[in-house]
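#struct-pred
JK: can someone run the complex with iron/sulfur cluster? inputs below
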Amino acid sequence: MSSPNTSTRTHCPYCSLQCGMTLETVGRTLEVRPWSEFPVNEGALCRKGWTATGLRGHRERLTSPLVRDRATGELRAASWDEALDLVAAGIRAAQEKGGPDAVAVFGGGGLTNEKAYQLGKFARVALRTSQIDYNGRWCMSSAASAGNQAFGLDRGLPFPLADVERTDVVVLVGSNLAETMPPAARHLDRLRENGGHVVVIDPRVTSTGDRADLVLQPVPGTDLALALGVLHLIVAAGAVDEDYVSARTTGFDVVRRSVAAWWPERVERVTGIAASEVRALATLLAGADKVMVLSARGAEQHSQGTATVLAWINVALALGMCGKDAAGYGCLTGQGNGQGGREHGQKADQLPGYRMIDDPAAREHVAAVWGVPPESLPGKGRSAYELLEALGTDDGPSALLVFGSNIVVSAPNATHVTERLEALDLLIVADVVLSETAAIADVVLPVTQWAEETGTMTNLEGRVVLRSQAVTAPRGVRSDLEVLQGLAKRLDSPVPFASDPEEVFAELGLASRGGRADYSGITYDRIRDEHGVFWPCPAPTNPTGDPHPGTPRMFLDAFATPDGRARFHAVEHRGGAEQPCADYPVHLTTGRVLAQYQTGAQTRRVRALADTGPFVELHPMLARRIGAADGEPVEVTTRRGTMTAPARVVDTIRPDTVFVPFHWVGANRLTNDALDPASRMPEFKVCAARVRA
Ligand code: SF4
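RT: done, structure tokens with the ligand placed:
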């Protein structure tokens, strides 16, 4: 590892905004300072970013491998050799008994591009297993699936986030941007200062809704019906951009017919939004020169998530917005590397560069970079939830390696998933602290975190940024790349694995070359010099040719489909997989709070961030009906489980809905594991529940 600097420009360890920051070593302490020139956040950070060094030197930081003692059943400290030998022996035993697919790998959307790439290569080359997927499948995969279907390519935002300021109307569908990524909210404020309008669609009025011109609160799971109704009115008003539709798209006639019966009063009956408000939104959009529709988890984490995003893309396409300056559709990704994590091979059906694993040409290209025969690469594996469900079953994996994921807290129907983890013969978890998942593992491998390592991340705009090492790691800790290198060697991998991140990134570039997410023209030096580089950025075909500038804005001339046209898709509203009934009469929805990130494995341990614990948000009318009082415990029950937490009585939520944040154990014991048929994303955002005081 290189020597640490006293002042290092890097990026926040948490969300997909990847705010730039400066880390300064002052004596023995590490302090966060602004990096004002970095354009994405211009020096601003949220509370989580300012306190990001809080985990450094934490008493719960793991600094030695742990193995479960057979005699006592407890985890005990072990040497790296003992732990890695144990893991390699367990993998061999599992594969001798059950074949290559007896071992599975589960990655994370917070891993650097280098780690995600190396994890995918490790699974396919060293383990020869098809059983690899990652928690990004639970984050924005429905938007990815819809983007691929409509545009031929999925990049969260196909434009820089700052373009929001130059549009006329931005519609946020299921996004609480002001709370999940506060520095990004300044774009909404500037848009309004410029005379533009902000529309927020969310069952709760959040701090994002507080800075909106129009807030619509649909019944959870009905965003799709709202989009159908808005398009119906746009068609009726003659506001479809017919020239654009005929020149740049296909499939509109079927969609036009499919929305004919979605008049506003029908939309009101389904969504609970007054017909007058549906008309107000359609009128605003029909009269705007530039419209931007941005979706997030509220629209996507549904069994109809892909169809919901497609319905909103249809609205943007009908208005002629996609591929136009400061307009179009984009997805606000969530996890730090939610974008890059899905481009480089830790997804069950993909190889690096967003290549599909069942494409013979893709297999040949990647196999040549890896130095193995194409036929040795396994095929497509199970998606994240289906993989977890199969663990420990007769035809499922008996061993699992987990990198960068806290499944016990983050998986839907979490009690069932935890039982599957406990049914494994061998569970290996690489993490920085003893997360809830690490606590039930057979082997725990302590790995480096954020400021202790270098690697690239791809933010929500498709901008590849560089996290640089600022401090040395504690003694006893290894990087994930070193762990994979050590395991590959013990497993007699046919090819060696590098552990230097810059070397791995160069190889990733070669593997991605010619693919949809082409990183081959990006280098660490360019990222440093240019404040990040947007993919696709192919290397010049001639070694002396000019470097590609990167692609901040996509689809300006053509979409990434074979004929260059975007695709309309006719979709139907079905609603949540589980509807309220006499036993479970309200909707449960889940989400985030400002001070915590994902499962809270890191942020719950940062003392400067308030760990309030979970709560149940409900409307005063519902509270009165069940006899609940603010601050007093209430019990929420679904068909999968029960949790108890203090009530938070607020009039900003629909009276038929309760909200629970998912950063603590409990919320996901309640959530539904119904999957979207295209993206295989679970329905975290709505299920039927009962609440009792
Ligand atoms: Fe920026 Fe997100 Fe980090 Fe907050 S958590 S500082 S918004 S990257």
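RT: quick notes.
The radius of gyration is 24 Å.
The CA atoms of residues 51 and 608 lie 7 Å apart.
JK: thanks, will look after standup
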